[in-house]
Amino acid sequence: MILTDEHRELQRTVRNFVQQEINPCVDEWERAGAFPVHDLFLELGKLGLLGISKPEAWGGLGLDFSYEAVFLEELGAAHCGGVPLSIAVQTSMATPALANFASDELKAEFLAPAIRGETVASIAVSEPGAGSDVAAIKTHARSDGDDYIVNGEKMWITNAPAADFFCTLVNTGEGKPHQNKSLLVIPADSPGITVGKRLHKMGMRSSETAPVAFEDVRVPKRNRIGDEGAGFLLQMLQFQEERLAGAALTIRGLENCISHTIDHVRERKVFGAPLLDNQAIHFALAEMQTEVECFRSLTWRAVEAFVAGEDVTTLASMAKLKAGRLCRSIPDQCLQFWGGMGYVEETLINRAYRDCRLTPIGGGADEVMLGIICKLMGILPSRKRQKSSPPKATEQSSVGDAD
Questions:
Q1: Among 221, 208, 236, 256, CA closest to 103
Q2: Are 295 and 337 contained in the same domain?
Q3: Are residues 139 and 191 in the same domain?
Q4: Domain, as residue range, for 147
Q5: What is residue 67's three-state secondary structure?
Q6: Most buried one in 13, 51, 198, 314, CB count within 10 A?
Q7: Would you call 153 a catalytic residue per the annotation?
Q8: In terms of pTM, does the model score above 0.85?
């Protein structure tokens, strides 16, 4: 995809923001295990960066998703993964369905302030017993006149401690698991909501994550996104954007691993010569950069198809899978070249090693991506293979994972 001058200008804006407003504070935020979400989101909102591809009627810029991808790719250059993840939850995980399928009333109440950065959004899908298997969620919303009464527990919820509202997938019926779910927007201050203790994670430490419990939480039915029972399909569509966002967010972080490692091995001397002079090392670094460029091409091919209105379930799943694979291999290879310094938590490569490990797990595990790709290739196990033509990609995507 060819980037325009407008894309490049947005790229410069985001790059400056990362360099001036995020990177100087990363070490402090990582130690604290949190960052000032509301303050940073307000600054992003003033620049229009929280609603790039959202409708102008609700304060967005009304641009296509390629501009969102530029934003996310450049955001990934931050010296940590937690802050970009929290921002991406706001822009690409908790609000796409709200922007695309909600009533005008809901958009005015929840989407518009989220675009301005006045509120923090969170996506609440995963549960203690249902991560990648979204169809298995147990959180239930019982009908009570004009309201739902919600009970259940969500787990691994990014932004939960700071959230003003949750985009929540719940069961609103007892029918088939792909047809009995609905997406509800639930204000975080609703009586009966309890946000648990912040989880202490291996990585993504500056991004706050916590469980959320719903006990007899009364939610107006007008807070439902789309039709009752359509929640599973809407969440699968939302996953397409989430996975493209996750892939784009990964690119610059992987390049950071490589560039910082080049700097380190150029300065580090072993047996009287720079470590970079070792052919095995500079060949490995060249191989890694080649892999990142191939991954970037795949991601942008998927973005271009998405902008054109195509079903990108296959390409988005492939990009997410490749992101997960590279996030396991590249930081690990680079850390090895740092030697003992790579084992010290304060180094950027150590942080990248820990942060990147989430990529092949969150937003749909690698194995889930492989399953989706296999289904769309028609290579199901014989006992599951059907003689009839395969359903649409969004109907096949019966598994996924979200924070």
A1: 221
A2: yes
A3: yes
A4: 122-228
A5: helix
A6: 51
A7: no
A8: yes
